[in-house]
Amino acid sequence: MLLTSQSGTAAWLVDRGLLVDLSANPDGTLHHPDQVADVCRREDLADLVDADTPLGLEQAAARLRVRRADFDHMRTLGWITPAEWQEVRFGTSRAGAVDVPMFTTASVDAVVDAHPEVDWEQLRSVGKGRRSPLAALVKSKAKAKEAVVV
How far apart are CA 86 and CA 99, in angstroms? Predict the structure, then answer.
């Protein structure tokens, strides 16, 4: 007996090569039960799923325990880039659709270790409406870029 699935999780496992889709049906997947059992026995499965979980802008900022403005500065500085873009629709028309950047939890978590020059506790304590310490880095990066162009 083969197992069928229409879940995003099964598609995610297929995309990462952890399961083989035995079906040509675009609306679902078909898997051999032994292969599913093998994947379920993996001790690192929870870590794999956690590391690749998509986060939106607000979720990524919350995971880092920084304000959204600070996270936007990190994007401007090139410290983190979206893993993918997902279309999000508002209402029933396509006119309300926007592309939203999505980040993996692993890439968000890696930002702190990749930038030890940042006083993360200070950054996390900056109050609403206060200037971000990262703003100065963004400004100096812009000036450096401008100097290269001239």
Answer: 5
- Do 88 and 64 meet the contact criterion of CB atoms below 8 Å apart? no
Asked whether residue 139 carries a pLDDT value surpassing 60, the answer given is: yes
For 67, the 3-state DSSP assignment is coil
pTM over cut 0.70: yes
Alpha helix (H) residue ranges in the chain: 8-15, 33-40, 45-51, 57-64, 68-76, 105-114, 120-125, 133-149
Q: What are phi and psi of 29, to 5 degrees?
A: -125, 160
Closest CA to 22 of 41, 4, 9, 37: 4
Instruction: Give me 68's structure tokens.
Output: 């959204």
DSSP state of 33: H
